Amino acid sequence: MADEEFELDLDDLQRRMDGAMGSLRTEFASLRTGRASASMLEPVMVTAYGAPTPINQVGTVNVPEPRMVTINVWDKGLVGAVEKAIMESGLGINPQTNGTIVMLPIPELNEERRRELSKVAAQYAESARVAIRNVRRDGMDQLKKAKSDGLSEDDHKIWSDEVQELTDKAISGIDSALDAKQQEIMQV
Description:
Radius of gyration: 23 Å
Family: Belongs to the RRF family.
Subcellular location: Cytoplasm
InterPro entries: Ribosome_recyc_fac (IPR002661), Ribosome_recyc_fac_dom (IPR023584), RRF_sf (IPR036191)
Distance between the termini: 63 Å
CATH topology of the largest domain: Topoisomerase I, Chain A, domain 4
Number of strands: 6
Function: Responsible for the release of ribosomes from messenger RNA at the termination of protein biosynthesis. May increase the efficiency of translation by recycling ribosomes from one round of translation to another.
Number of domains: 2
Strand content: 15-25%
Order of helices and strands: HHEEEEHEEHH
Shape: elongated
Low-confidence stretches: none
CATH superfamily of the largest domain: Ribosome-recycling factor
Helix content: 55-70%
GO biological process, one term: cytoplasmic translational termination
């Protein structure tokens, strides 16, 4: 019988949902909360030697104090390119240069900017929820196909419940991560 052979790959669905959650954490790390973090520079690409290069591959990124990030650029000729990349990145930080060291003082966030960042965090979370729902839909489509190939109604229900449980767990993880990030953003 076909229903005895059917095995939904729950590990694959879980792995894909975890990937969406990991992507959300990366996006949250790039949101500036008034505290210095080396991860806020991860999306910044520097045009070095004719190719876009991650900033951590042209210099050492440090956080010497809570409101300061420094980049010790290894090649003096790239200092200007690093400054330009930071200014064009949309981070809202003006770099200051001292030789090969680029300093990024993190300004205090005002209330309006905190609300904007909170909305951006909510948008990131919604994108992650959509990704989770897409994984759920893929799993349910596999179940529909298996049902038309002879999967019993009871087995279909059991597998559907498993997929829904994975989805609910992932969505609640996203919600709690969003709550934590919004509290961090709104904290003065």
